[in-house]
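[audit] Reproducing an earlier prediction to check determinism. Same input, same settings, fresh worker. If the tokens differ from the archived copy the diff job will pick it up downstream; this log only records the rerun itself.
[audit] input (361 residues):
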Amino acid sequence: MAVVSLMLFVESLQVTIRAAMKQDEDSHNLLLPLTETILDAVVSKLLVKSIQDVIDDDGSVKDTASPELRRYRDQVQALESRLCQLMDKLIRNADNEASLSEVSIVNGRCCIKITGDKSSSFDGLLLSSGSDAGSMIEPIIAVPLNDELQGARALVVRAELEALSKLTDKILLELDNIQILMQETVTLDKVTARARYSIAYDGTLPDLYLPNIEHGIVNAAKDEPASTTSSAQLTKRPWKLFIPNAYHPLLLQQHQENLRRTKKDVASATAEIRRRRIYGQDIAEEDQLASELDFMKIRVSELERNHPIPVDFMIAEETTVLVITGPNTGGKTISLKTVGLASLMAKIGNWNNEVEILSLF
């Protein structure tokens, strides 16, 4: 069903994009090349229907997979019903009812579990026995039905394998398209994840400064198009690296998650106190909640005050060497990691906050 889910997801994206293009013709151009990737994807509706006809949502083979499978499963159900009726009749007609326990299954064969020292009132085959578990007896009269049931179950398994084999052949014909579809979906998922991260942390699109060393002079690369300005405009900028108020992305993410979680706890505790007051519930528990709420509010204030400290990195265009000195725990490593991560994130399309001009390392 994973293949079906993948194809239905892509088909849903295609429908959404086509609807958006009808409402706004420019939307297609804004989302290039993503829209082309999605619209060009091949979704085999015939294969989707074939899989849905054979495989159920829980992964089992449907009765509709083949007429033979339905017939064999009906046969199994009928035999199981006949065996249950037979076993119930034997238990009811037994002279020593106290020694007869229940109907059990041993290796797929229907039998009767007998406890106690008394023997059974019917002829049967001993399938298993134990001092604690009792004896498992297969009545002689039930042997033909059990044999027939075993045969019917084997036919069901064979019919399921045949249905799955035919379905596999159909999937193999579309295997190349499925693999391409999976790769394109993974690419779209990565782009979506980067976009969500950039939006969540107020990421900005940087001007990528790509230096070429010519005669000892650092100039912007002429072969690579700039993101928002031309290469000629970049050469006029005084900076090769301009990152004001930049945060280490992991520290910023950790801080915002802690703050968001604590604020959520405050809202939940406030709502619980309000609910208890409305319904007049235990005052002692309300006082405890109020105390915990005060502690949470203090925690929120502390998190808001102890915001990660940003760094300012501004390197002039003509600079070729930068030396960073300072005491231990002064922020040297964090600063370097901030710049390095900002450059790496820009390479993969993950925009960082407050980045204006960025070199690629």
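[audit] rerun output stored. Observation attached for the diff report: Strands lie at 100-106, 109-114, 124-130, 134-139, 207-209, 211-214, 217-220, 239-246, 311-316, 357-359.
[audit] end
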